[in-house]
Each structure stands twice: as C-alpha cells, then as structure tokens.
Amino acid sequence: MRRKSQACSSHTEVLFTDNRGRSKFKSDRGRDKSRSKSKSRYKNLECHHCGKKGHIKKYCFQLKKENKIGEKQEKKNDRDDNVATAAQHEMFVVCDANMVNVARDDTCWLVDSGSTLHVTSHKNFFSSYISGDFGTLRMSNGSLSYVVGKRDVILKNANGALLKLTDVRYAPDMHLNLISARRLDEEGYHNTFGDSQWKLTIGSLIIARGKRCSNNLYTLQTSIFRDMVHVTQDEKPIELWYKRLRHMSDKGLQFLIKKNILQDVKKVKLDKCSQCFAGKQTRVSFKSHPPSRKSEALELVHTDVCGPIKVSSHGGALYFVTFIDDFSRKVWVYSLKRKDQVLGVFKDFHALVER
C-alpha cells in the first residue's frame, strides 16, 4: 500500500510540472489590437529615412540598427586611441601634452637623414663596448638623453650581408634604434630613397634594404650578428713569461727562476713551440750542376707554343711558336692564326735547318 501511494503522489507531481509556464492557448487579442492600431495609424505615411511606408522615421528599425552600429564603432575607436601596438615592421609614436610614448620592435632600426649619430637603447647589441660619460643627445622636441657608452654594432641583414655601425652611442632613455644616413654617407656608403624603399649600397653591392611604413618613416628590419665572441684565455705563468721574454731558452728561464725574478713560477715546463721550430730551421742549399749545353748545332732544339693572345696582330695571328737551338741559342719565331698550324710550321722549320 505504501509503494502504491508513493507512485500516485509522484505521478501527480509530474502532471503538475508539465502544466507550469505560460499557456499555449493564451489569447492574443490585446496584442493584435495594438498592432492593428499602429499599422492603421501610419499605413499611408512614408519614412523619411528608408523610404518605406507603414512607419515614420522615429520608429524606423533600420535607423535604430545603424545608430547601434555607430555607437559600437565609436567605442572601438576610443579603445584604439588609448592603446598602440607595434607590428614587426611598424613603429608608432603616441604624443600627449607633456608625454611621448613609443611602441616599437626592438630589432627595427629607423633610418634618419637628420640624425648625426647612430644611437641605440640596447646594451646587448654591441659587439664591443666602452662605458663612460659621453655627453647628452638633444631630441627634436628639445628633451635631453644621456649617453653612457659607445662602440660598434654589427647588423646582419636579410640577404646575409653584414653592416658594421661604428661609434654607436648607447642612450638608455632613447627608446629608439637610429641609423644616421649622414654617417653612412661619410663612411663611403650610398643611400637611396625612393619608391617607398631605402637601399644602402657600396659600389655595386647591396648591403641593406628598408621600406617606408605607414607613418612615413623608413625602417630596417635586421638582426644582431653575434658570431664574433671576445674570449680571454687564462694562460700559465711560465707560458706568459716565455712570450714576454721573446721565447727565451729553457736555460735562461731556469736561471731567472733561481734568482726569484719571475713571479709565481717555480719550474720550467713548456710545450713545444712551433714558432721556435720555424725560426731555427735552415734552408738546404741546392747542389751545383755543371752546364749541360750541347756541343753541336741543332743537336737539341727547344720549342714552345704561346697563346691565345687577347689582342691579335695586324695579320690576325693569335698564337706564336718558338724554336731555340740549345748550342747557339738561336731563336726562330713563327706567328699562327690557329693552334693546329703548329705541325705545318714545324715541317717548314725542319726543311729550313736541314739545308
């Protein structure tokens, strides 16, 4: 009996939840009446915005839709004005009343024809570096930036060519990488600006290429050449003294060690020095041979063919052949237009000397 009563109660609850919500058979009389009144009111009127009949401009759905799209676009533009992003080849400068913000790519260099120096704000770009107080740089807006170091920067371009920028100034507050076209011109390079491109050449070799961005600035996208590494080797004290004393002999070094003249050196133990072996070598003299000239004329004849010669003779010859008698050193010379004429000339020479 308990199970049956529970089943009945659950069945009742299911029926109750099935009937929840708005009824499907609810009358729409009131809504139909309001719609019919609005349609009948503006039935013959034409909208001044879209040109359709049945409504006025105040209730135009197309106008409301356009207004919503315009509001969304204005909000998007407001957000873009507050944020600046830099792509790989772009650089944006955002200016306010008393503040300048720069968004740029660190590997991008700005080619400036008005700058007198190469400038960077990255210390790790330098292949060699000297720190110190090197004055200040004055910007176009009148602000100053302190220079705390300088040296050389080597750039590797997309075509594999290397561009060495000498005397580059390190200014941490600069926030830009500047290449001075004037300095490149003084170093022998040729700058060409045109067709939205910048090209740097030396002679007929193209060193670097850049392009003009949307902000009318010429930029160079490059990388830092880091294959050259400066290494200092910790040498042994005896080897260091050996080089300082111009490769002194082991006996001389041992004598200086006994006198306690060489610091931090107790014994002489050196590797074989290739420079010393090369310096102590002697050249073996050539053996003298008695003269081997023949004792009779035409016993031995030396011959040789020379050519082709770049400039032909008046007769059009590009080759010549020589016959030299070893006994008398008499020389016969014949000019040839082609190399295959050597056999015929030899026959003529043989007939001449056999007379």
From TrEMBL:
Protease in keyword set: yes
Basic and acidic residues: bias regions: 19-35
GO terms classed as biological process: DNA integration; proteolysis
Location of the region described as Disordered in the Swiss-Prot/TrEMBL record: 19-40
Integrase catalytic domain sequence ranges: 287-355
Alphabetical UniProt keywords: Hydrolase, Metal-binding, Protease, Zinc, Zinc-finger
Keyword field contains Transmembrane helix: no
Gene3D superfamilies: Ribonuclease H-like superfamily/Ribonuclease H
Domain CCHC-type as annotated: residue spans: 47-60
A GO term, aspect molecular function: peptidase activity
A Pfam family reported for this protein in Swiss-Prot or TrEMBL: gag_pre-integrs
Protein name, UniProt field: CCHC-type domain-containing protein
Organism listed in the record: Nymphaea colorata (pocket water lily)
